[in-house]
Amino acid sequence: MSQITRRNLLRSAALTPLFYINGCRTATAGKATDIAIEQIDFGYEDYLYRTPIKFGGNVVDKVTLLNVNCVVKSRDGKTAKGFGSMPMGNVWAFPSKVMPYDRTLNAMKNHAGKIAAIYRDYKEQGHPIDIGHAIESAVLKAAGEVNKELSLEEPMPKLCSLVTMSPFDAAVHDAFGKLVGKNCFQTYGPEFMSHDLSHYLGPDFKGEYLSQYVLPVAKPNMPMYHLVGALDPLTGADIKKRLNDGLPETLPEWIQFNGLTNLKIKLNGDDIKWDVERVLNTDKVAGEAQKKRGTEKWVYSLDFNEKCPNVAYLLDFVKQIRQKAPNAFERIQYIEQPTNRDLRAHRENVMHEAAKLRPVVIDESLADVESLYLGQEMGYSGAALKACKGQTQALLMAAAAQKRKLFLCVQDLTCPGASLLHSASLSAHIPGVAGIECNSRQYVPVANKGWEDRFPGIFQVKDGNMQTSLLDGPGLGTVPA
Question: How buried is residue 23: exposed, middle or buried, by Cβ count under 10 Å (0-12/13-18/19+)?
Fold first, then answer.
């Protein structure tokens, strides 16, 4: 796509404020704080995992972070710098049975270059929500260019585009908050936004603003979810060779080390005997460890990563857990994305019966408000928000989900460093979200180096809770308050 064509596309997609004077359509003056993109730069960091993680039938042992720096300028001439970071997560965002890891990662890197050009070419002024919302359509078109230029065997999914765009979107939100001297979650009301939510989500939201669906001040602390991966040892008997790197290696060791009360259990979805036994064994081991600590209450989330062949599998699984270990069943807080992410292609996988037992949330399926509403129509009772889908989109989805009284959780993408702070801040500023997932401390702690001293209550958890009051600094809160 040429620069002129891209610019024309973006100008036509931009959602510029409009009103009428003597019957003529005229652009509004907007807000003095409205920003334009002055500069965008990006780069990568690569890390190896200390131990592999398995999800969705795939084993992952490394990560590439996409880091974005930007400069924005307001209408009144002020400038500010912003930063965004996110794991590229190609195995999750761009799963493929025919393309290897490096090929899908290279496609995302190619896309990142195009996204950077789109942001540089975008000359409209507005709030970060307006900018992110307007640019998304061009980002999706650019994915089509990547498909053709690289002759990809499978097209890049929308979810993959959102993940690649997310650190760019985050950097703009971060810069805007720093420009006005506020945490981002204090900038989503009429003081800074020219549009109400009906502009993005339709007439049901007339007169409402995002500020009505977010908390201006973070919850002071929140439980941290620990991942029990499918490859993770539960006890010492499961370890063939210890890492001996100073970090816990078994579930009881992690429970003691972090004071854990929230466990996320990864399941395979294609072997019901294994899945049931995994939950029962995890519950047994966790129960013994919690008894030693004198802890009476702890909870689980269960994540199939869309691998269940059908809803009958899920119902049978839940029935067996309930029969064999009723206490374990009672500890299930919610279930994530049990069946295929393509809801439209699998309308038969309705979750009405399962959702009567426990909240069932869409995760990989959630790529736009239409998929949120379709999921609810199919019986899903909740949604998993993710910073890796973009701050703009996550907030709009949070508002739409709250309007429909859906259960909400926030999941990360094994986010380290600034991306973990972003994900944690999202969790702490959305009403109803009960916990924070934090996997990087288990799998890629090296990527958290340098952040622990700045945010000790986030990266060094001892009582099972993150100290999220630390996240109310300017912008996305990656600078200590």
Answer: exposed
Task: Report the percent of the chain where pLDDT is more than 90.
Answer: 92
Pairing status of strand 407-410 against strand 436-437:
unpaired
Beta carbons of 85 and 64 less than 8 angstroms apart:
no
Sorted by where each begins, the domain ranges of the chain are: 3-182, 212-471
Q: How many CB atoms lie within 10 A of CB 104?
A: 22
- What pTM value is reported for the model? 0.94
Domains 3-182 and 212-471 share a fold: no
How far apart are the C-alpha atoms of 31 and 28, rounded to whole Å?
9
The mean pLDDT value for 142-150 works out to 98
CATH class of 212-471: alpha beta
428/218 Cα distance (integer angstroms): 5
Helices (H), 304-452: 311-324, 326-330, 352-357, 369-377, 391-403, 417-429, 440-443
The predicted pLDDT at position 427 comes to: 98
> Which is nearest to 386 in space by CA: 58, 11, 89, 4?
89
- Can you give the length of the chain in residues? 481
Q: Is 400 helix (H, G, I), strand (E, B) or coil?
A: helix
User: Contact, 196 vs 175, CB < 8 A?
Assistant: no
Q: In CATH, what class is 3-182?
A: alpha beta
363-420 per-position pLDDT tens digit: 999 999 999 999 999 999 999 999 999 999 999 999 999 999 999 999 999 999 999 9
> How far apart are the C-alpha atoms of 428 and 437, rounded to whole Å?
12
Name residue, tokens 């080390």: 257
Report the alpha-carbon distance of residue 400 to residue 413 in Å, rounded: 22
What span, in angstroms and rounded, lies between the C-alpha atoms of 259 and 236? 19
**Interhelix angle for 311-324 vs 272-293, to 10°?**
40
Of the candidates 187, 159, 191, the residue with the CA atom closest to the CA atom of residue 371: 159
Which helix (H) or strand (E) covers residue 227, if one does?
strand 222-228
